[in-house]
Design a protein that fits this description.
Blueprint (H helix, E strand, L loop, with lengths): L2 E4 L4 H11 L4 E4 L16 H16 L4 E11 L20 H11 L7 E12 L2 E14 L15 E3 L11 H7 L1 H16 L2
Helix pairs in contact: 4-5
């Protein structure tokens, strides 16, 4: 079975990808490559950042390993699309999920326009070259307070369109059927099935 390296050190993200891939490949992540320096996300879009990460990681691990990188985040209409590509470091470079979510909800206090969407861009590379890219969006709105125990990042405050529960209140299987990452991965899976054969 082919190996697929997910270019992340976020174990939640690795687990989500592994579940969506459903045994298609042996999935690993950057925890097995501690010598790879942090890849700077200098792109101006989610796709540019995904490509930067995929290319850098695939150059590092060699030509035999497929690498999948994603860049994803939340765009809020009332905040002019913020946090956007800065979603992971919205409250500062070393801030964690809780601080980012707290700052977002503080900035949304008193705002009636609560439309938001999660974006995901995926790039697949091998030997330092991107071979394919895919994008997905999940529309929804922001709650006024976090709810639920599951998920990560902004999940406790994001309510997908057509539901009344946050991403943190629905099951992983439900989330993986509708999320931005799932939408992008459905496109990627069809391509990967051929590439990994």
């Amino acid at each position: 079975m082919q190996r697929l390296l997910i270019a992340t050190r976020n174990r939640h993200k690795t687990a989500e990808f592994a579940q969506i891939l459903d045994g298609l490949a042996v999935v690993g992540d950057l925890h097995s490559h501690p010598d790879l320096p942090e890849i700077e996300e200098t792109g101006s879009t989610f796709l540019e950042n995904a490509i930067l990460k995929a290319e850098a990681a695939s150059r590092h691990v060699g030509a035999e390993t497929w690498v999948l990188a994603d860049d994803s985040g939340l765009a809020v209409d009332a905040l002019g699309g913020a946090p956007g590509i800065y979603s992971a470091r919205y409250a500062g470079e070393k801030a964690g999920d809780a601080a980012n979510l707290r700052l977002l909800l503080e900035r949304m206090e008193g705002k009636s326009e609560r439309a938001a969407r999660f974006h995901c861009a995926i790039a697949v590379a091998r030997g330092g070259t991107v071979r394919a890219s895919f994008e997905g969006i999940c529309e929804g709105s922001l709650a006024t307070a976090p709810t639920g125990e599951g998920g990560f990042g902004y999940d406790p405050a994001f309510i997908p369109t057509g539901d009344t529960r946050s991403f943190s209140e629905i099951s992983a299987a439900e989330k993986n059927a509708i999320s931005h990452r799932a939408v992008a991965m459905r496109q990627a899976l069809a391509w990967l099935r051929q590439a990994l054969e």
